[in-house]
Amino acid sequence: MAKSVNKVILLGNVGKDPEIRSTGGGTMVASFGLATSERSKDPQGNWQDRTEWHNIVVYGRLAEIVRDYVKKGSKIFIEGRLQTRNWEDKEFAGRKVYRTEIIANDISLLSGREESGGSYGNRSSSAQNNTASAANMDQRQPAGRDDLSQSTEISDEDIPF
User: Fold this and answer.
1) Rounded Cα–Cα distance for residues 107 and 10 (Å)
2) Where are the domains of the chain?
3) By CB distance 3.0 to 4.6 Å, which of 34, 106, 119, 123 could disulfide with 12?
4) What DSSP element (H or E) covers 66?
5) What is the CATH number that goes with domain 1-39+47-118?
6) CB proximity list for 27: less than 8 A, separation 6 or greater
7) Phi and psi for 99 in degrees, rounded to 5?
8) Which ranges of 92-153 does DSSP label H, i.e. alpha helix?
9) Which run of H or E residues covers position 76?
10) pLDDT digit string (tens) for 44-75?
């Protein structure tokens, strides 16, 4: 069989607070809408924004993170895969309904707490401390010259071409 790829990458804003539920087996599931926008010029030269809405579904530990940190207005980056479900509509007997969703396998939260529009006061302090600790662990050298670059200068004669 030939190689195939099913990968989605989105950067957008959450349209409303995520819906949280659990499967029969106890796995947490979060679902929400994500808006992405595209800007283009119309025939008259005016800028037009076109918003596309995506149905996002997240399972397990990522669903817990979504529950705790994602709110309406949050800016997030998502990587995942497309999946289309179908079922028969109970109102219109025999009519098949299709829904295409992005099953997220990686999420990056890009909004600060104050930018997301939600209140984080009810979160556990250990989660807040862990998040703050991870954010403050910058392993990079301070801007400036390190010891190695101060001791070795490169001249034109050192370049091999």
Assistant:
1) 10
2) 1-39+47-118
3) 34
4) helix 60-69
5) 2.40.50.140
6) 59, 60, 63
7) -140, 120
8) 125-135, 147-151
9) strand 75-88
10) 999 999 999 999 999 999 999 999 999 999 99
